[in-house]
From TrEMBL:
CDD domains found in the cross-reference section: PDDEXK_lambda_exonuclease-like (cd22343)
Mutator-like transposase domain mapped to chain residues: 1-137
Protein name as annotated: YqaJ viral recombinase domain-containing protein
Highest classification ranks of the organism: Eukaryota, Metazoa, Ecdysozoa, Arthropoda, Hexapoda
Secretion signal, residue range per the UniProt entry: none
Family matches, as PANTHER family: EXONUCLEASE, PHAGE-TYPE/RECB, C-TERMINAL DOMAIN-CONTAINING PROTEIN (PTHR46609), YQAJ VIRAL RECOMBINASE DOMAIN-CONTAINING PROTEIN (PTHR46609:SF8)
GO BP annotations listed: DNA repair
InterPro entries in the cross-refs: Mutator_transp_dom (IPR049012), NF-kappa-B_Signaling_Reg (IPR051703), PDDEXK-like_dom_sf (IPR011604), Restrct_endonuc-II-like (IPR011335), YqaJ_viral_recombinase (IPR019080)
Length: 548
């Protein structure tokens, strides 16, 4: 219900206010953002950016830190220190955020510097001040104990960094310094007026009238007196006047706190109802009406491809170098087919519907798990280890587009010199293995095999397709494929195979993008009824399915 209500506001914002809303302040629940990305109220080239509520971010941070501190596997001295100073862990984040909000530096620089200080904040609070900024602290205090060595030895620091990573990814939201307190305050007033769903107010105008009364109360802070005088043409009695006088006094005492529209504090938000979408077999099984003609679809596809061809490749790579931390990176990837998906697409059977894959590429929300989080956190360590091991410099890069096919893109983990790229894998399953042979024999690395005593990437695995695609798109010859674990590291030098690209990849990728993905990009059908069955299957797939 909440997602539908907000979506309706976006759909009518131009008619009602002459505005397009490009940002949405929300909490950790992705259902509203997911719905907006499915429907695309302003068209496929205008996406709404979600700004996380700062209160929810910080509350989630301290809650998860407290949960870690209650795990008896970790040293009790650190656990007690965290629980005793849990509020200070939060205040470290707010202090750093306020500093950069007030700093006179570019917005992107603020975000980058804030991420550094957020990453360092648990080290500061646990007694290690090597990387603390000057404004943040003055160094080690007298009698302070450095708990970091013990935390790293017990692997507690890894768990703490996992929690900190969520704040890192939302540093831009912290800089925005906003929350959704007004919405929650209004919802709480509505709940009071409707009796917390305990009474049936579904009769004509009952619920609507009570919501209007709640809005009147929220905006005027004076609804009792207003309604009483309107209905009785007389002022309220002595008791009501005393009540309103007390309320007014309390509000005046808190005027400084309420001076800002978005203030600190606020009530906990009640769990939202999750929307699972309509049932394809219950009332919505009829074909979708109102489809555009094939000629109009071809024109839209042609215009979109023209726009992609006009994009400056060098500028795009530069502005997306923050990769998953960049909003531009996410938006530009949605318009293209990226190398991480090449393997699955090239290995699809001819009679396999493309609907689920198109849905996954365009609409499925970004989710994180411990394996993904572990890989993201270990990647900088793996890159630094590779640089030390081979005495080379790895340059961080953004999104590359193919010169010939502008709708094919890739983001390697780094560039080496003028002719090589780096691809890093940090397998969570093999993190405790002693060596590569053990990892393969125990089936922790199913994408590798041992050949002539060396760890080798299988050529039929999707990672190999990804690497060949990256080499083609970046126009480079070699890829250093690094598998990194705390106990061992393996590096394989893979050379670009043009025959493999031409015979097993390029035609399938072109066909999938132009016939499966592009139609849904330029003329989205899924958002009309939220059914994957509405997504188009091209004629060649339908023909193969019918033959089967």
């Amino acid at each position: 219900m909440e997602a539908d209500t907000i979506l309706e506001g976006f759909l009518n914002s131009i008619n009602m206010h002459g505005l397009k809303y490009n940002k949405l302040i929300g909490d950790g629940d992705s259902s509203v953002t997911k719905r907006l990305n499915e429907v695309l109220p302003y068209g496929n080239d205008f996406r709404v950016k979600k700004i996380e509520c700062k209160n929810h971010l910080l509350r989630n941070y301290t809650t998860k830190l407290s949960a870690i501190a209650k795990q008896t596997d970790y040293p009790i001295s650190i656990r007690k220190h965290i629980l005793t100073n849990i509020v200070r862990f939060r205040s470290d984040i707010t202090k750093a955020t306020k500093h950069y909000i007030n700093s006179d530096i570019p917005f992107q620089t603020k975000i980058a510097e804030l991420r550094k200080d957020i990453s360092n904040s648990p080290y500061h609070r646990l007694g290690q001040h090597n990387n603390c900024a000057v404004y943040f602290c003055s160094g080690t205090k007298s009698g302070e104990i450095n708990l970091i060595p013990l935390a790293e030895q017990s692997k507690m620091m890894t768990s703490i960094n996992n929690v900190v990573y969520r704040l890192l990814t939302h540093a831009d939201s912290l800089i925005e310094n906003v929350d959704n307190n007004p919405c929650e305050q209004l919802n709480s007033i509505i709940n009071k007026h409707v009796g917390g769903k305990r009474i049936n107010y579904t009769q004509k105008n009952n619920y609507k009238t009570r919501v209007e009364a709640a809005i009147l109360s929220y905006n005027s802070k004076n609804y009792l007196r207003t309604l009483h005088k309107k209905m009785t043409t007389a002022s309220p009695g002595k008791t009501a006047k005393r009540y309103m006088s007390n309320i007014e006094r309390i509000r005046k005492n808190t005027v400084m706190r309420r001076r800002k529209l978005f203030c600190e504090g606020g009530k906990r938000k009640k769990p939202m109802i999750k929307y699972s979408g309509p049932d394809a077999d219950y009332g919505l099984a009829e074909p979708l009406d109102g489809l555009i003609s094939d000629n109009d679809l071809k024109k839209k596809k042609k215009n979109f491809l023209k726009q992609l061809n006009e994009v400056n490749r060098e500028d795009l790579e530069y502005v997306t170098r923050e990769q998953s931390l960049s909003n531009d990176w996410h938006n530009e990837r949605k318009k293209r087919l990226t190398a991480s998906n090449f393997g699955e697409i090239c290995k699809m059977r001819k009679n396999t519907s493309c609907r689920k894959k198109v849905y996954s590429l365009l609409y499925r929300p970004n989710t994180t798990c411990k394996q993904t989080t572990y890989g993201i956190q270990m990647e900088p360590l793996a890159r630094a280890h590779f640089e030390t091991l081979y005495n080379v410099h790895v340059q961080i890069c953004g999104l590359f587009c193919d010169k010939e096919f502008s709708y094919l893109a890739a983001t390697p983990d780094g560039l080496i010199g003028e002719n090589s790229i780096l691809e890093i894998k940090c397998p969570f399953a093999a993190k405790d293995s002693l060596n590569a042979v053990e990892a393969v024999e125990m089936k922790m690395l199913q994408y590798c095999s041992i050949e002539n005593g060396e760890l080798t990437l299988k050529k039929d695995h999707k990672y190999y397709y990804q690497i060949i695609g990256q080499l083609r798109i970046t126009n480079r010859k070699f890829c250093y494929f690094v598998i990194y674990t705390p106990n061992w590291t393996n590096t394989q030098k893979i050379e670009y195979d043009d025959v493999f690209w031409r015979t097993k990849m390029v035609d399938k990728l072109k066909l999938f993008y132009l016939e499966c993905l592009l139609p849904e990009i330029v003329d989205p059908l899924y958002g009309k009824r939220f059914l994957t069955s509405d997504i188009r299957d091209p004629d060649h797939i339908k023909h193969q399915i019918n033959k089967k």
